[in-house]
Each structure stands twice: as C-alpha cells, then as structure tokens.
C-alpha cells in the first residue's frame, strides 16, 4: 500500500512555500492551490474511518460564500457533526508534509493513533457547484483508492445534505436511524415533517428565496416537489438567483453574506414592501431573512432573530404540552449576538443563554447540553438539537387534552423538520415558515419582538493576528497585555456599550465588534477600539 500511496501522492504535489491550516471551516483557499490538500484530506478521512471501526466519514468540497475561484474541503464525523478537534491538527500536519514525507507521516499517524490497518475504511463525499469541484474530486478518490477505502460519490449536494447522509449511513437499520440513505430520503423526510408541522396552515404571501446562484437553487427546486400544495396549506416559494451554469454568478451580488455585510437586498430581488425574503449562502448551510419596511427601509432578520423565534415557539409548545418543567430549553450564541437578543431571551422568554467561541462546532456542542438547544450565529448558521430525553418525552407523554395532543404532535414534527446534524438553510427556512404560519405573523411582527442595539463590525489588518489571545468565550483579551484595560475604559464611556476584539479564524485580520445605544456611538466605539488594536 505504501507504494500505491506514494505513486498517487506524486500526482498531487504540494505547492512549495505554502502553509495550510484546517480552520473554522476546514481548508479554504484559491482552488488552484488545493489539489494536494484534498488528496491528503482523503488520506485522513480513511484513517478517521478506520479509527472509528469502519464508520462512514463524510467529505464536503465547498467554499461556501467565497468567490467562485475559491474552493475548500471539510470532514464530517459519523453522526453528522464537525470533525473532532484533535483531528483538525492531524489534517493540518499531513497537509503540510513534504511530498516525500507523506507516506511516513501517514504511517506514523496510524501508529500514534493505534489504528488497525485491517479495519475497513468508508467515506462518502459531495461537492457544491464550483467548476473546480470535479478535478478536486479526482484528487480525493486517488487518495481513497490508494488508502484502500470504500467510497460513494453523492455528486452535487448542499453541505447539510451531506451531513444528513453521513448520519443516515451510520445509523441505518438501528433504532436511532436518522432517515433513508438517499437524497430523496432527505426531501421526503423534510416534506412530510413540514406538512405535519404546518397542520394545514398557510403562510401569508410568498417568500422570495435567493439561492446565491449556488447548489441550494437546484436542491430547493427539488424539495418543492415534496412540499404540501394548494388547499393542503404550505408556503408559496419564489426562487431567485438559481443560475448554476455561469460560475461567475456564484455569491455575486447575492446570497446571505452579501445581504448581511451590505445590509441590503440583492439587486435582483423584486420583493415589494413588507414581503418576506431570505438568502442562502453558496452551500446552503446558512440563511438570513429580511424585508423592506415602508417606514424604516431595509430590515434584517438575522440568525439572532431566527434563534429567538424558534426558542419562543418551542418554549410555548413545551408549556402547552405540559413538558416545560421536565425539559431544559436553552439558547446558545456567540459574542457577536446582538445584546438586545440576549436580553430578550433571558428577560422576555425566561430562558438561559450560553455564549461560546465563534464557530458552529462550539455552539453545537454547547447546545447538546440542553434537552432543546437552540443555537445560531448572528450570520445565520444554526439549528436546534433535541436530547434523547426530549425525543422520548414527545413520543411517550400521554396528552391530557386536545391542545396538549396538538402541541406534542407539532413538537414531534419539528424534530424531523429540523436538521439536527448541522445548520441547514432549507430546513431552517421551513422552520421559520412554520412558525410564522402558526403565529399568523408577517415579518413586521417578527421584527417588532425586540429592537437591535446599533452595532458595527470592523475588520482590522494587523502585523500578526496570532498575538491576540482571548478568554471568556472570546469576549476578553488576555494578550497583548494592557489592551483589554484600554478597551474596558473606552466601553465605560458609552451608554449600553459593549465591545470586543478577536483574531479571525478564517481571515488574516482581527475583528472588532461594538454596540451602543445609538448608531453614531456604536461607530465611534468601534473606531476607537480599532485604533487600540492597531497600535497593539
Ligand atoms: C464574525 C463572523 O461572522 N465570523 C464567521 C467567520 O469566522 P471568523 O473566525 O470570524 O473569521 O467564519 C466562520 C466560518 O464560516 C463563521 O462560523 C463565523 O461566524
Ligand atoms: Mg456555508
């Protein structure tokens, strides 16, 4: 096998003078630099599967909201979670090995991690619509073949669909079966659960869905075939930005990242005043809503809003079902969550909030500590996870009234509607539509639940971002020394002021976030803290 790995590796040489890192979102960069990385990640996938006794590992080739010329790769663990932390470091090691050291390092990982060579290795993979995808798939399959792994190509999928399939594959035929192991199984599961959750209701007016000209477009079009229609209730969906043939259009002037950073609808949107719109990102694992308010202009309904909406709805259902004393419901956010949303969850909804470092894996992990854990990043990555105890309670509790029976039925449907493996734009969209239909809300009522504090996010270029070390879920700097004291002194001068600085995990920069009582104060605080960071 060593000779095979060496021969295959020689076809995918590493660019010299490049240092790669498995970051918050796997490896991500210009696609032209990625060939050797993908090959080596293929080797890691085989090792990981063997280490876990032959359970299936997922590999997704995507660069999400990045421009079309980029690409990336990330690994999915057997239950559909993000790759375990320590394995990010092994991936980084192998990605940076010199060509001549690849086989030695592969073997040394095998030895260090006590991996049995004879255990079967199984891998499934998929990619988004980027033109560089098929070539990178060749690098991946060269590695899997050389490492003696069995593999299945799911071709084009959204990232969350690949997470779903990974979990389905590993739970097939067990009492924990997550669903049918096929793309169709995904649509059927969501379609049935949506019909059950909606209970014949219909949302008012259509929702316009901007698919970022990415893989979400064709997949949403497919999902529509499985959703209730006409007199059966449901939702009217208008798809825009679903051109996957012209690669240059991917994420161009559209998509969740464009809308969130530019704070405006994509120019292609024809949605009128008060009409609901939402945008997915390039691999459909992130979603944000928005609408035009005739009095106040563009209104963003971001991840914080989706989290508060979901927490309030599920909290009410648990109460109606007589389960609120039995089940611990909580919300997980990062420091980027608007302070007003945190206050709303704690004070108005009466639910606990946990803050974790940036990156979905931290939020997901913290959410599993609750029976119902709602987690979202402000930028729209997120989902809801249910504990075994919650699932059992929804299915075994004897209803004492028709109202209780109905609440339990809706809760059961939600556990199938929500993709519990990872944030899923298509599933999250159906969740939001369900809740708005139940509450008979337009986006205006949703927007009125609380008022965001004005805030500003600034990207500060520094000489070396690695000198910025944080604690307290990234809300405080411990290094460079003295910087936090300066930030604290600035924050104290602003009403409702809050600010923090941290090194980005995906870009070579420090991010400064600030919020305060007014727009100009938030801007002022962000600028002053940026100056402090720059000087450090
Ligand atoms: C402020 C912000 O939006 N940060 C993003 C961004 O991480 P940074 O570490 O801040 O670069 O990319 C991550 C991966 O997509 C995402 O999880 C996170 O929310
Ligand atoms: Mg994404």
UniProtKB/TrEMBL annotation:
<comment type="similarity">
    <text>Belongs to the phosphohexose mutase family.</text>
</comment>
<feature type="active site" description="Phosphoserine intermediate">
    <location>
        <position position="64"/>
    </location>
</feature>
<comment type="function">
    <text>Catalyzes the conversion of GlcNAc-6-P into GlcNAc-1-P during the synthesis of uridine diphosphate/UDP-GlcNAc, which is a biosynthetic precursor of chitin and also supplies the amino sugars for N-linked oligosaccharides of glycoproteins.</text>
</comment>
<dbReference type="InterPro" id="IPR005843">
    <property type="entry name" value="A-D-PHexomutase_C"/>
</dbReference>
<keyword id="KW-0460">Magnesium</keyword>
<dbReference type="Pfam" id="PF02878">
    <property type="entry name" value="PGM_PMM_I"/>
</dbReference>
<dbReference type="GO" id="GO:0006048">
    <property type="term" value="P:UDP-N-acetylglucosamine biosynthetic process"/>
</dbReference>
<dbReference type="InterPro" id="IPR016055">
    <property type="entry name" value="A-D-PHexomutase_a/b/a-I/II/III"/>
</dbReference>
<feature type="domain" description="Phosphoacetylglucosamine mutase AMG1">
    <location>
        <begin position="203"/>
        <end position="288"/>
    </location>
</feature>
<feature type="binding site">
    <location>
        <begin position="502"/>
        <end position="506"/>
    </location>
    <ligand>
        <name>substrate</name>
    </ligand>
</feature>
<dbReference type="InterPro" id="IPR036900">
    <property type="entry name" value="A-D-PHexomutase_C_sf"/>
</dbReference>
<dbReference type="InterPro" id="IPR049023">
    <property type="entry name" value="AMG1_II"/>
</dbReference>
<feature type="binding site">
    <location>
        <position position="285"/>
    </location>
    <ligand>
        <name>Mg(2+)</name>
    </ligand>
</feature>
<keyword id="KW-0119">Carbohydrate metabolism</keyword>
<dbReference type="InterPro" id="IPR049022">
    <property type="entry name" value="AMG1_III"/>
</dbReference>
<feature type="domain" description="Alpha-D-phosphohexomutase alpha/beta/alpha">
    <location>
        <begin position="56"/>
        <end position="87"/>
    </location>
</feature>
<dbReference type="GO" id="GO:0071555">
    <property type="term" value="P:cell wall organization"/>
</dbReference>
<dbReference type="Pfam" id="PF21404">
    <property type="entry name" value="AMG1_III"/>
</dbReference>
<feature type="binding site">
    <location>
        <position position="283"/>
    </location>
    <ligand>
        <name>Mg(2+)</name>
    </ligand>
</feature>
<keyword id="KW-0961">Cell wall biogenesis/degradation</keyword>
<feature type="binding site">
    <location>
        <position position="511"/>
    </location>
    <ligand>
        <name>substrate</name>
    </ligand>
</feature>
<keyword id="KW-0597">Phosphoprotein</keyword>
<feature type="domain" description="Phosphoacetylglucosamine mutase AMG1">
    <location>
        <begin position="302"/>
        <end position="441"/>
    </location>
</feature>
<dbReference type="GO" id="GO:0004610">
    <property type="term" value="F:phosphoacetylglucosamine mutase activity"/>
</dbReference>
<dbReference type="Pfam" id="PF00408">
    <property type="entry name" value="PGM_PMM_IV"/>
</dbReference>
<dbReference type="GO" id="GO:0000287">
    <property type="term" value="F:magnesium ion binding"/>
</dbReference>
<dbReference type="GO" id="GO:0005975">
    <property type="term" value="P:carbohydrate metabolic process"/>
</dbReference>
<feature type="binding site">
    <location>
        <begin position="377"/>
        <end position="379"/>
    </location>
    <ligand>
        <name>substrate</name>
    </ligand>
</feature>
<dbReference type="Pfam" id="PF21405">
    <property type="entry name" value="AMG1_II"/>
</dbReference>
<feature type="domain" description="Alpha-D-phosphohexomutase C-terminal">
    <location>
        <begin position="458"/>
        <end position="529"/>
    </location>
</feature>
<feature type="binding site">
    <location>
        <position position="281"/>
    </location>
    <ligand>
        <name>Mg(2+)</name>
    </ligand>
</feature>
<feature type="binding site" description="via phosphate group">
    <location>
        <position position="64"/>
    </location>
    <ligand>
        <name>Mg(2+)</name>
    </ligand>
</feature>
<dbReference type="InterPro" id="IPR005844">
    <property type="entry name" value="A-D-PHexomutase_a/b/a-I"/>
</dbReference>
<keyword id="KW-0479">Metal-binding</keyword>
<keyword id="KW-0413">Isomerase</keyword>
<comment type="pathway">
    <text>Nucleotide-sugar biosynthesis; UDP-N-acetyl-alpha-D-glucosamine biosynthesis; N-acetyl-alpha-D-glucosamine 1-phosphate from alpha-D-glucosamine 6-phosphate (route I): step 2/2.</text>
</comment>
<feature type="domain" description="Alpha-D-phosphohexomutase alpha/beta/alpha">
    <location>
        <begin position="118"/>
        <end position="172"/>
    </location>
</feature>
<protein>
    <recommendedName>
        <fullName>Phosphoacetylglucosamine mutase</fullName>
        <ecNumber>5.4.2.3</ecNumber>
    </recommendedName>
</protein>
<dbReference type="InterPro" id="IPR016066">
    <property type="entry name" value="A-D-PHexomutase_CS"/>
</dbReference>
<dbReference type="InterPro" id="IPR016657">
    <property type="entry name" value="PAGM"/>
</dbReference>
């Amino acid at each position: 096998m060593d000779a095979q790995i060496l021969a295959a590796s020689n076809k995918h040489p590493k660019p010299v003078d490049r240092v790669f890192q498995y970051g918050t979102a796997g490896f991500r960069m210009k696609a032209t630099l990625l060939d050797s990385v993908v090959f080596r990640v293929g080797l890691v996938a085989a090792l990981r599967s063997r280490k876990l006794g032959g359970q299936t590992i997922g590999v997704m080739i995507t660069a999400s909201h990045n421009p079309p010329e980029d690409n990336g790769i990330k690994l999915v663990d057997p239950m559909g979670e993000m790759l375990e932390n320590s394995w990010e470091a092994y991936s980084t090691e192998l990605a940076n090995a010199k060509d001549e050291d690849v086989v030695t390092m592969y073997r040394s990982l095998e030895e260090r991690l006590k991996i049995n060579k004879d255990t079967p290795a199984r891998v499934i993979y998929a990619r988004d619509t980027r033109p560089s995808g098929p070539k990178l798939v060749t690098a991946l399959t060269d590695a899997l073949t050389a490492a003696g792994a069995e593999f299945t190509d799911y071709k084009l999928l959204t990232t969350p669909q690949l997470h779903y399939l990974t979990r389905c594959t590993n739970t097939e035929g067990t009492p924990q079966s997550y669903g049918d192991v096929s793309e169709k199984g995904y649509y059927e599961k969501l379609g049935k659960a949506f019909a059950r959750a909606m209970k014949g209701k219909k949302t008012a007016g259509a929702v316009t869905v901007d698919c970022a000209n990415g893989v979400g477009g064709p997949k949403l079009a497919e999902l529509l075939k499985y959703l209730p229609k006409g007199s059966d209730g449901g939702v009217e969906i208008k798809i825009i930005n679903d051109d996957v043939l012209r690669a240059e259009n991917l994420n161009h002037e559209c998509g969740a990242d464009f809308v969130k950073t530019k704070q405006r609808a994509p120019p292609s949107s024809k949605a009128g005043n008060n009409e609901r719109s939402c945008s997915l990102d390039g691999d459909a694992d992130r979603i944000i809503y928005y609408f035009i308010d005739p009095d106040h202009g563009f209104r963003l309904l971001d991840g914080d809003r989706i989290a508060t909406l979901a927490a309030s709805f599920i909290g009410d259902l648990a109460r109606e079902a007589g389960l609120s004393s039995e089940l611990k419901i909580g919300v997980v956010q990062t420091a980027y969550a608007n302070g007003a949303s945190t206050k709303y969850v704690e004070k108005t909804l009466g639910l606990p909030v946990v803050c974790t470092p940036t990156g979905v894996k931290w939020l997901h992990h913290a959410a599993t500590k609750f029976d119902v854990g709602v987690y979202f990043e402000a930028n729209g990555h997120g989902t809801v996870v249910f504990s075994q105890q919650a699932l059992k309670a929804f299915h075994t509790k004897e209803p004492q009234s028709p109202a209780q029976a109905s609440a339990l039925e809706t809760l059961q449907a939600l556990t199938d509607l929500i993709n519990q493996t990872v944030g899923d734009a298509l599933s999250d969209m159906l969740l939001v539509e369900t809740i708005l239909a139940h509450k008979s809300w337009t986006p205006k009522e949703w927007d009125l639940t609380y008022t965001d504090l004005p805030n500003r996010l600034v990207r500060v270029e520094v000489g070396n971002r690695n000198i910025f070390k944080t604690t307290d879920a990234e809300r405080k700097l411990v290094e460079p020394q003295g910087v936090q004291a300066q930030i604290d002194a600035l924050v104290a001068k602003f009403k409702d002021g809050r600010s923090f600085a941290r090194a980005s995990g995906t870009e070579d920069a420090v991010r400064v976030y600030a919020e305060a009582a007014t727009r100009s104060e938030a801007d002022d605080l962000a600028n002053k803290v940026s100056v402090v960071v720059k000087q450090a």
